[in-house]
Every structure is written in structure tokens, then in C-alpha cells.
Amino acid sequence: MSFVTSPSGRRMKGYLPDYYETSRVMDSILQAQGAELDQLRVSLEETLQQFFVSSATWGLDAWEAELGIAMVPDKPDDQRRAVIHAKLRGVGTVTVELLHSVASAYERGAVEVTQQPALYQFTVRFVDTLGTPPNLGDLQAAIEEIKPAHLQVVYQYKYFLLNQLHQTMTIKDLQTRRMTDFAPFIPVS
């Protein structure tokens, strides 16, 4: 009976001659070395995940340092990843497509971008979010960093107006609903 429980140890045992099959000494050696190899494999896989922004966890600090992004460890990892993705995408000539690409890196970042060349400005309108989107400050900073200095950016937000609510719901219906049903990102205390 084999006492080797490590997957790597069992794999190594398969390469040994048959006379080691009943050796408890060899089983102990294979178990110890196999456990180390298993742990090494896990560490290597975890390290490999840090090379990709979408799977990085503890490696986000290195990405932020490399890209010159201010580190805010208190931020959730998904928001930190969004800032990194936006920074990586925001390279080259600023076009409407580039602004779409940068905005889409953020949570609820579907936007419409319209240019007003005569006014030296462009408008970013949020289309999939009611109110202000989460992580708005980071999105504004990313756009501010990539836009030409002579252009002004105007942000337009989408809100439910009271007359729109009255067209779809009665006051009684509204009283039974929570505010987060209309703007799920607003913290309710």
C-alpha cells in the first residue's frame, strides 16, 4: 500500500522501478518532495496570474507602479484593474474610438462620445448608468490624461425625472420600492 498522497509524488513514483513499490522510505521521500513540487506548482501558477491585469491580485501594485498610477490599496481590485486597463488602452491619437475603449474598461462604462469642434470640446454621455457611475473619478482622470489640453470635456449623466416615473408607476408603487431599485450604486444607510 502506498502512502504517497501528493499528486507530484504519485507521478514520480510511476517513473521508478517496481522494487520501490513497497519501500516506505521511498514513499516518505516521494511524499516530501511531491508536496514541495505541488506547492511550487501552485506558486508558479499564482505568479503567472500576476502577469495579466485581468487575473492579477497582489501584482496590481507592480502594474500601478509601472504605469505611474497612484496606488490606493483600499480600492477594490476590480476598480484598480479598470484604472490599469484604461491606462494601457489610452495610448496614441485621441479619437472617439479611443475614448470608448478607455471608458469601457470601467464598470458601467458604456458611453456615447460626441465632438463639438467649434466649441473645442467633446461630450461624454453615460448610456447604461443612472446617475453617476461608480469609479467616476478614475474615469475622469483617465480621460483627462489622454485628451488634448485644448479640449474641454463635458459629462452628461442619465437620471430618472419625476415625470418619467409618474408615467410608469403610481405614488403607491413608488412607496413600496427602495431607492436602490432606481440607482443601485447609491449606498443606503
From TrEMBL:
InterPro entries: Phage_Mu_Gp48 (IPR018755). This is DUF2313 domain-containing protein. It comes from Paenibacillus anseongense. The lineage of its organism: Bacteria, Bacillati, Bacillota, Bacilli, Bacillales.
